[in-house]
Amino acid sequence: MSETRVRFAPSPTGAPHVGNIRTALFDYLWARHTGGKFILRVEDTDQAREVENGLELILESLRYLGITWDEGPDVGGAYGPYEQSKRLPIYKRHADQLIAQGVAYHCYCTEERLEQMRKVQRARGEQTRYDYRCRYLSPEERAANERAGLPKVVRLAVPPEGKTTLHDFIRGDLTIENKNVDDQVLLKSDGFPTYHLAVVVDDHLMKISHVMRGDDWIPSFPKHVLLYQAFGWEIPPHGHVPMVTGADKKKLGKRHGSTSVLQFRNDGYLPEALLNFLARLGWSLDDKTEIFARQQLIDAFTLDKIERAPAIFDYGKLDWLNGYYIRELPDDELAARALPFIPQADPAMLRALVPLFKPRIKKLNEIAALVDFFFEQDLEYDPQLLIGKDADAATARAALRAAHATLEKYPEGAFDDEEKIEAELRADAERLGMKNLPFFGALRVAVTGKTVSPPLMSSMRLLGREKTLRRIARAIVMLEKP
RNA sequence: GCCGCAUUCGUCUAGUGGACUAGGACGCCGCCCUCUCAAGGCGGAGACCAAGGGUUCGAAUCCCUUAUGCGGCACCA
Fold first, then answer.
1. How distant is C1' of B52 from CA of A307, in Å?
2. From the Cβ of A12, is strand B under 7 Å away?
3. Is A11 within 8 Å of A49 (Cβ atoms)?
4. Mean pLDDT across A124-128
5. Is A279:A299 a contact under the CB 8 Å cutoff?
């Protein structure tokens, strides 16, 4: 069997979202699994919808996930160019060939007429489709149109009878009757091809061995099959991968919150976690394996395990996975990855804080809220928090005074003896007849400004003697006020 | 409206005629641990396999019908 060559062919119309990238991932995994090539081709054939930095957004999204490509716009390759806007003559040539064969024809209809036509069809409850007006023009009429210099497009002449079948390696045979297939435009009046012409021509010319794309493309496969047949080309195996949807079961889109890959990066998701999660949407190995490192994914990925039904993108499960991967990271590595999310932190200090926040976050952007008290001078909080639910100000004050007295005895050098300090503080609580909860609760708020925080002893150690004592003293004053 | 695709716990899924009293994971609930919150450990609830017909000694697994959901119906991809 010849080399596997698969391609990801996005349109530079904005930041790629996770649904598209999931398809790219399947392509990538299959290429790596088989030792073949993964090709990036940009389908920039719609000048109106194109976004300025569209290409860059695509490249960045793939890089973030570590999805590497062997041929593409930036790296070139033997079958370039890899931007369709740079291949216009190729499409023109092929369109001309189709016209010469009588498989396609020039159409001179205006947008206005087409819109009017569809309006009528819709009113009648029919499927909107081209009405063949220009398909059966006489040679004289055609010549007249040409002489008049009317703008024209090239349309595919779909056989009115029969049906077209495509074998899909995920779903089996797909069949659609030709009468339900529109005479699709192949070449637009601006000289750019539409998707239908461009994919077929490029997939063939670039020797693509397997075509994977979203199942929203299923309705248009007959056009592609017809083109392959007209050109006399072999149809590569096709597989329509299931859609990734939002919780409402609708195709993922802007309405579903953050779906852009880059947004996940900015929110603090690790690429290895997103990669793992995406791979498991519409694909699974067996009845128990959830965690896959990149190489395991590559080793295990096969086409026959791709699912048919659409999958809802479950943010909750992604968060769990991300938390798992964070906990798996070595402390030094986590510190390095966390730095961009808390730039005000001194790197050495942040490194020391890792053990405190590591088991407590699911995303890197949660770190700041957890450890911000380390980086502030005086804390702002409601004094009521010091007292807690079932206690009173006097009790809280007594607890803080005791704690302050105890901690004060420890000089700078001995302040990091967590065990000893904790034992003594517990003894303080007991002497005051207080339970641990209210005692440490008051101390926690005084030191961290929060009722929920990383472990107290470690927090005080890292905060340092001076700041700790000052905060406790300040809390005592707050309780004395009124 | 027309055409197409899909249908196993809330979600991601295992399952390809008997090993299924349908397995795992997330989430949820409870317990343990415990200075809070997590993490971790243990346990639990949760799917009559969309419905109805067949085929078969036997069906989540094969066939048909229906229902529901989704997708497509552009000089967009």
1. 27
2. no
3. yes
4. 82
5. no
Q: Give the residue ranges of DSSP H helices in A311-392.
A: 315-328, 331-338, 347-357, 367-371, 384-387
Q: Identify how many contiguous H helices and E strands chain A contains and give both numbers.
A: 20, 11
CB of A185 nearer than 7 A to strand B: yes
Residue from A22, A37, A33 nearest A304 by CA:
A33
DSSP code string of A454-469? S-HHHHHHHH-HHHHH
Backbone angles phi, psi at A41, to 5 degrees: -130, 130
What is the residue type of A305?
K
pLDDT value of position A416? 86
- How much is the pLDDT for A400? 95
Compute the distance between CA of residue A424 and CA of residue A415 in angstroms, rounded to an integer.
13
At residue A466, what are phi and psi to the nearest 5 degrees? Answer: -60, -55
> Which residue numbers of A are catalytic?
254
Task: Please tell me the distance from the alpha carbon of residue A47 to that of residue A345, in angstroms, as a whole number.
Answer: 45
- Quickly give A296 CA vs B31 C1' distance in Å: 36
For the whole prediction, is pTM greater than 0.90?
Answer: yes
User: Is residue A172 classed exposed, middle or buried when 0-12, 13-18 and 19+ CB atoms within 10 A define those classes?
Assistant: exposed
Residues A118, A420: Cα–Cα separation, whole Å: 82
What is the token pair recorded at A381? 């909080």
Q: Among A430, A427, A419, which Cα is nearest to A455's?
A: A419
Token match 């060559």: residue? A5
- Pick out the nucleotide with least CA–C1' distance to A168: B5
- pLDDT digits over A131-179, tens only? 999 999 999 999 999 999 999 999 999 999 999 999 999 999 999 999 9
Q: Which residues of A345-361 are buried (b: 16+ CB within 10 A; e: fewer)?
A: beeeebbbbbebbbebb
| A400-442: pLDDT as tens digits | 999 999 999 998 888 888 999 999 999 999 999 998 999 999 9
Which nucleotide is closest, CA of A216 to its C1'?
B71
Distance CA A141, CA A147 (A): 10
Nearest-10 crossing angle of helices A393-408, A436-448: 70
Where do the DSSP E strands lie in A248-396? 311-312
C1' (B47) to CA (A349) span, angstroms: 50
Confidence of residue A322 (pLDDT cuts 50, 70, 90): very high
